[in-house]
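Open question from group meeting: does this chain pack into something compact, or does most of it stay loose? Before anyone orders reagents, we agreed to write out a predicted structure and look at it together. Recording both the input and the output here so the notebook holds the full record.
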Amino acid sequence: MFVNRMPRYEILSADALAQLDAGWRRLVTEIGIEFMSDRALELFRAAGQRVEENTVFLDPEFVLAQVAKAPREFDVQARNPERSVHIGGDHMAFGAVYGPPFVREGDVRRDGTFEDYQNFLRLSQSFSVLDSAGGVVCEPNDTPLDSRHLDMNLALMTLTDKIYMGNVVSGPNARDTIAMSEILFGGREAIEQTPVCISLINCNSPLRWDDRMLDALFEYCEAAQPVVLTPFILMGAMSPVTIPAALVQQMAEALSGIALAQLIRPGCPVIFGSFLSNIDMQSGSPTFGTPESGIGLLCTGQIARHFGLPFRTGGGLTSAQVPDAQAGYEALMTLMPTFLAGTNWVMHSAGWLEGGLVAGFEKFVIDAQIVEMLQHEFTPLEINEGSLGFDAHQEVGHGGHFLGSMHTMERFRTCFYRPFLNSSENYERWMRGGAQDTATRAGVMWRKRLEEYEQPALDDAVRAELEEYVTRRRRELGD
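Structure tokens returned:
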């Protein structure tokens, strides 16, 4: 996985941080946070917090005491130990797009299928810049709703050997993920000792945690599996229109969720989550890759470090309908601050289109290229006698040419990063090759990757036990 040792880009002054801190404290104290779960309300009540109906009015010092119980950094094990990741510090882990119901393949936009889902997992396995396929890379709409999570889990556990995300649609779905993880990794003790999956728990912004998400939160926290407590904020719709107001709300929501996670199981690993952008004030549509989202992203990194927490934000987000120039520059507008902030867990790194409604095969490849280029760009320079190249000057002299120098000949194969997707051919050669644009080349590449894909090995007994579990649970669910 990538370790980002470049300096963090921090834009908040000490005074600005203090004002934001006062803001979230006022929100949780005077407005409160809704928790649509009797179990959650009882935990807060037992901890001495004021509860009125479903609203919890939180003492900020209590919240901070709970947050302090969460680890600053932690490991997540993959079934292939070489694919395990470290969350926190300078480490950045990247996962594919999450949640789209639709798929784009070339010029065709359609409902996602289970075959699409499997193909995205195979692509995730094939790109080394991705540390995880994620979870719901696309929605397999041709499988039964009640049991599709079982098929998705099985595919995640067998088609890839990287870390994966847990299903959060309901408490029972979360329990199935945990049970299958126990089979894959050798029991409950093994997954509690070192977690194996990361699960996204979204706040129903503004200021409400809903029952389904909370049911899943309880299951994962009780099993010591990391949870990403993420406010879902589109400024102008789910928060006030100003960035400071959105940041304050994000802090109140994320910290309240983290406090609950620590009440459920003290020391449970958590990730300070952020999904912050804005709407188009003319159309009301969500927009991504905006300057406001980039600023919010940079602020989020600084805020999370202020609380000593690993954080999630960023990705290759765009509002574009197709993998065109807009898709590319909006993705970079989000991925660049993702790196500048040093984001620890990056969802939506590859494949996001049309505001998250679409998982695009060509966009998947384009995003993987952007991430790989940024990883090279954010690798510190190695400055030593060899890289300074004084011997090359001695050899070439004044007015000479370095192309054939010994310094160049010794380094020409590796001296510059070579993009796997870009074209730098002259016009005539590009025309002879079919005049392919970026999206066309990406289409050729993802199909070639699928042809070359090799399924990672898995013990036959483990595979059989997983398949038996899926068959049994599907029968119990009536599918």
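Observations to bring back to the group:
The first strand starts at residue 2 and ends at 3.
The first helix runs from residue 14 to 31.
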